[in-house]
Design a protein that fits this description.
- By secondary structure, this protein is mostly helical.
- The protein has a domain at about 15-130: Tetratricopeptide repeat domain (Serine Threonine Protein Phosphatase 5, Tetratricopeptide repeat, Alpha Horseshoe), CATH 1.25.40.
- About 75% of the residues lie in helices and about 0% in strands.
- Helix 9 packs antiparallel against helix 10 (about 210-230) and helix 12 (about 250-265) runs parallel beside helix 14 (about 290-305).
- The chain is globular.
- The protein starts with about 30 loop residues before the first helix and ends in a 21-residue tail after the last helix.
- This is Tetratricopeptide repeat protein.
- InterPro entries: TPR-like_helical_dom_sf, TPR_rpt.
- Pfam families: TPR_12.
Length: about 375
């Protein structure tokens, strides 16, 4: 389905680091990026260069977002947008909107994420910034994939992958491979998922993309745990990925790594250790205001505690509350996920909440039409997005 790579991917770059920050590596430590970006912002403000202010504020926003400093990230992307608008730079406006949309997705605000990313793609097209447009299209695809709207976004993922292969762009290739692999994994097509995760890891390694490599190892660990029951190999892979996350200070990726470690331990019947990992991840997700990760870590924690002897009534009540939380975030598979946990633990069927209304961010109601991607429509795409 994915074809063969036609061009050897070049070394990964970080096009979201622009202007005075353009020489920063994709693997630069995020505290280092933040320090340099703040110095660059002050220098640009002294000279009155609003375009440079916008570009440096973008780096501040992205470093803060990835570090889990959500309020600072929110202020920074908005400041970047205001500076870009004052400078009349559509491309810089697109980048700021992309950053804001990515932050909204991280916070579980999918309706806002779709709106900002759609505006970003339009601004990128008007401003002739094909890279910003590509990031924004990928952000739309990523948002739909996270919500479970696979039918809507599978084609866009494939188109983005084909374009990445044609141009030999490593980060774009890795992002698309991992997204497609995750859809296969969630559909139970484990062999296909593993092959794509392994290709993503190899591509990221050759391109010296530590971020993409860490995410790919997490995906491989998940598959070998659920398909093969090989907990030790999965845990070893997660340990290697954790080293990369700590090296670059990828707080969100680290929290998802810990949640996956809980999943692996739970599948292996090591419920006490699983509970510890889920509790650890829960604290990390709460610290960065990440509602999707928070709910998924809570789900693992509830399941582990049930296996360790918690009473059925308490477990059922917590699962019912979690189902409501996940549905309100806008995840299409929330009911299946939680009801399946209840059946597994023998505490179902769960009660329905009183006055149940529609999900706050249901995908069908808020997702804009997703475009086809022509050969010249974009140049790259966002691998960081939120898995």
């Amino acid at each position: 389905m994915t074809g063969q790579t036609s061009t050897r991917p070049a070394r990964a770059s970080a096009p979201e680091y622009q202007g005075a920050l353009g020489s920063l590596s994709v693997n630069a430590s995020l505290p280092e990026v933040l320090d340099e970006a703040l110095r660059a912002v002050r220098a640009a403000e002294r000279t009155g260069d609003l375009h440079e202010v916008a570009r440096c504020r973008l780096a501040v926003a992205e470093a803060c977002r990835r570090l889990g400093r959500i309020d600072e990230a929110d202020r920074a992307w908005k400041a970047s947008y205001r500076a870009a608008r004052s400078a009349g730079r559509e491309g810089a406006m697109a980048w700021a909107l992309w950053s804001g949309g990515t932050l909204a997705r991280q916070r579980g605000a999918f309706r806002l994420a779709y709106r900002l990313l759609k505006l970003a793609a339009e601004a990128g097209e008007r401003g002739g910034d094909v890279v910003a447009r590509g990031y924004s299209l990928a952000g739309l695809a990523e948002t739909g994939r996270i919500q479970g709207d696979y039918e809507a976004v599978a084609r866009l993922h494939e188109q983005l992958l084909a374009e990445a292969r044609r141009r030999g762009e490593a980060r774009h290739t890795v992002w698309a491979l991992e997204g497609i692999a995750q859809m296969h994994r969630n559909a139970g097509r484990f062999d296909e998922a593993l092959a794509l995760f392994e290709e993503a890891a190899e591509t990221a390694s050759r391109a010296e993309d530590r971020r993409g490599w860490a995410w790919a190892l997490r995906g491989i660990a998940d598959v070998v745990s659920v398909r093969d029951g090989d907990a030790e190999r999965a845990l070893a892979l997660l340990s290697r990925a954790e080293e990369a996350c700590r090296e670059i200070r990828l707080h969100g990726a680290l929290a998802y790594n810990h949640k996956m470690r809980g999943n692996v331990l739970y599948r292996a019947g090591r419920y006490g250790q699983a509970r510890e990992q889920y509790a650890r991840a829960l604290g990390e997700f709460r610290a960065m205001d990440e509602p999707r990760g928070t709910a998924l870590a809570r789900l693992g924690l509830v399941k582990s505690e049930a296996r360790l002897g918690r009473d059925a009534a308490g477990t059922a009540a917590d699962l019912a509350a979690l189902r409501t939380s996940l549905e309100r975030i806008g995840l299409l598979h929330a009911r299946e996920l939680v009801d399946g946990a209840a059946a597994e633990l023998g505490v179902g069927p769960l009660p329905e909440p009183a006055g149940k209304g529609p999900a706050a961010d249901g995908p069908a109601a808020v997702r804009p039409a997703l475009p086809d991607v022509g050969a010249e429509a974009l140049r790259t795409a966002d691998p960081e997005g939120l898995r």
